[in-house]
Amino acid sequence: MRGWVVGLLIAALAAPAAMAGSLADVTMADRVTVGEKELVLNGMGLRTKLMFKIYVAGLYLEEKSSDPAAIVASPGVKRVVMHFLSGKATKSKMDAAWVEGFENNSPAEFAALEARVKEMTGYFGDMKPGDVIEFTVEPGTGVTAALDGQVKGTIPGDDFAAALLKVWLGPKPPSEDLKRGMLGG
Question: Is the dihedral of CA 56, 60, 66, 69 positive or negative?
Fold first, then answer.
C-alpha cells in the first residue's frame, strides 16, 4: 500500500513537468512571457501534407480556450509558434499556402489584407528542419513576426492579427487535426 501511495505522489509531482507540450519530437514550453504577460500553451498540432510532417504549431494564450471564435476575438496577447520538420516547405509553397489560408478564412477582408500578407511572406524564405517562426499578436499593435529568434517586422492592424489566427482556427484550416491540436484537443 505504501509503495502505491509513493508511486501516485511521484506521478503527481512529475505531471507538471510532463505538461510541457511535445509532439513529433518537438517540445514547447508550458508558458512563455511576452512583455508583462504570461501566456500558457493552449495546444499543439501537426501539419502534414501527403504524409510528410511539415511543421508543429503551438498556440499560446493568456487563458486556455477551445473556442476558436473566442480566441480570435479576444483582446489578449497571443502567440503562434511553428517548428518546421521538413525541407519541403519551400518559399513558393509557403507563400501559396499563406495566401490560400487568408483567402479561405477571411474572404471578405482579403482585399484589405493582401498587401500585408505579401509583406509577411516577404519575411521568410525556404524553411529548413529546425527553423522556428513565431507570430506574436498584440492588440493595438498587430503581429510581430520572428524567424529563429530574429524579429523580421511587425504587420499592423488588429484585422490582420485576427485573419492570421483564422488561418489555423478558421472554418478552413490547413487540416482539422492541426486546428484541433492547437485548440487543446
Answer: negative
pLDDT of residue 19: 52
Q: How far apart are CA 40 and CA 160, in angstroms?
A: 22
Residue 65 DSSP one-character state: -
CA 87 to chain centre: 19
State the Cα–Cα distance between residues 183 and 101, nearest whole angstrom: 18
The model's confidence at residue 148, banded by pLDDT at 50, 70 and 90, is: very high
The answer to whether the beta carbons of residues 25 and 183 sit under 8 Å apart is no
Say how far apart CA 46 and CA 82 lie, in whole Å: 10
| Grid cell digits, residue 94 | 509557403
Q: What is the pTM of this model?
A: 0.88
54 close to 178: Cβ distance less than 8 angstroms: no
The answer to whether the beta carbons of residues 135 and 145 sit under 8 Å apart is yes
pLDDT digits (tens, 9 = 90+) for 11-38: 333 334 345 789 999 999 999 999 999 9
Helix (H, G, I), strand (E, B) or coil at 15: helix
Query: Tens digit of pLDDT for each residue in 36-45?
Result: 999 999 999 9
Cα torsion 118, 119, 121, 125 to 10°: value is 130
DSSP class of residue 44 equals E
